[in-house]
Amino acid sequence: MKDFSWDNKYNIDIERFDNQHKHLVEVLKDINKAMEDKRDKLAIAQVINNLKKYADEHLLEEENFLIEIGYPHYEEHKLHHQRFKEQLAKFCDDFNSDRYLLHFEIAVFLKNWILNHISVVDKKYAEYFKNIN
C-alpha cells in the first residue's frame, strides 16, 4: 500500500481533533511499516490494539463534544462511529483467527475512513461549531 500522509485539506479547523486525526494517520503509517517489515503476528497485533484503543478514546471524545455543542446530527454521526468500531472489532477477531493479509485490509480501511469520514462527515460538525461561535 502506498504511504499515506496527512494533508491540511483534511483539517476540520478544530485543533484538538485535527491533532487526533493526524495521530490516526501516524497509526496507519505504523501498520504500513509493520507490513513492510514483515513483523511477526504479536508485533502487528500490538499495532492493531493501539489503533483500537486510540480510536475508542478519540471517538468518545468527539461524541462528547458533539453533545456539548448540541450538534443536531449527533445520532447519525455516532452511527458512523459505531460502524467504524464494529468493523475494527471484526478485523481484530479475524486477525486473531489467523486471517491472511488482514493488516493490509485494516490499513486500507483506515485510509478510507480518513479520506471519507474525517474529510466529509467531521467537516459538517466543524462547520456547525463555527456557525454557533
CATH class: Mainly Alpha
Fraction of helical residues: over 70%
What structural class do you assign from the helix and strand content?
mainly alpha
The proportion of residues in beta strands is: under 5%
Succession of helices and strands? HHHH
Looking at how many chains there are and whether they match, the oligomeric state comes to single chain
Main sheet characteristics:
none
Pick out the low-confidence regions.
Answer: none
CATH architecture: Up-down Bundle
Concise synopsis of the structure shown:
By secondary structure, the chain is mostly helical.
Task: Report what the structure shows.
The protein has helices at residues 15-36, 41-68, 74-96, 102-132. The mean pLDDT is 86. With 133 residues, the chain is mostly helical. Helix 1 packs antiparallel against helix 2, helix 1 (15-36) runs antiparallel to helix 4 (102-132) and helix 2 (41-68) packs antiparallel against helix 3. The radius of gyration is 15 Å and the shape is elongated. Helix content is 78%, strand content 0%.
Question: Any key phrases for this structure?
Answer:
133 residues; mainly alpha; Four Helix Bundle (Hemerythrin (Met), subunit A); 4 helices; elongated
List the helices and strands and how they pair.
Elements: H1 15-36, H2 41-68, H3 74-96, H4 102-132
